Amino acid sequence: MLSASSTTPLRKYDVFLSFSGQDIRRSFVSHLREALCQHQINTFMDETLEIGEEISLTLMKKIEESNISVVIFSKSYVYSHWCLDELVKILECKDSMQQIVLPIFYHVDPEDFQELKGSIGDALAKYKEEFMNSSDKVERWSHALMEIAKVTGWDSKNIKPESKLIKLIVNDIWKKLNQMTINDFDHGLV
To answer: What pTM value is reported for the model?
Structure first.
């Protein structure tokens, strides 16, 4: 596939997958990644890190090098400091680099993100105690969670079976990447 990443020098990847949890890594995420790869969509997932690489800096760079970030919210996502830091970076890239961000609410309620309630609210309350000396970090995470809830995405409970959800996601990504390539061509970037 002639992707936008091949026409934009800074962008190495078509898609960056942000997720947490072994439970979804071996099921939903692995199926999604396989479907993306079958469509020749160059996808970064943290299992492709080189041994010895510093995780946080490397992941932040990989986010910057991606055209699209797909954020897969599962029950464990907000309990990961790494994921919340990734989410803040993803939204920064959305604002500063016009990166496309696509949220997937996988067996979680998007309304909990909009209102910071339920398990989201519980996790943030825990973080406020844990990070009393750096409350700005928790505020950035809270803001990012509310912002991502405003972005149109997919809610897994509304699309069954899961294979249909994956097909819809891949088709949407494919269309967005092709549109980016057409726009680059129209602007003389290829």
So the answer is: 0.86
User: Does a structural domain hold residue 67?
Assistant: yes
Q: What is the mean pLDDT of residues 90-110?
A: 95
What would the 3-class secondary structure string for the chain be? Answer: CCCHHHHCCCCCEEEEEECCCHHHHHHHHHHHHHHHHHCCCCEECHHHCCCCCCHHHHHHHHHHCEEEEEEEECCCHHHCHHHHHHHHHHHHHHHHHCCEEEEEECCCCHHHHHHCCHHHHHHHHHHHHHCHHHHHHHHHHHHHHHHHCCCCCEEHHHCCCHHHHHHHHHHHHHHHHHHHHHHHHHCCCC
Domain of 35, in residue numbers: 4-110+153-186
Q: Annotated catalytic sites, by residue?
A: 86
- How far, rounded to the nearest angstrom, does the alpha carbon of residue 110 sit from its chain's CA centroid? 15
Confirm whether 141 is domain-assigned.
no
| Structural domains in the chain (count) | 1
Is residue 25 in a domain?
Answer: yes
Tell me the average pLDDT across 70-78. Answer: 94
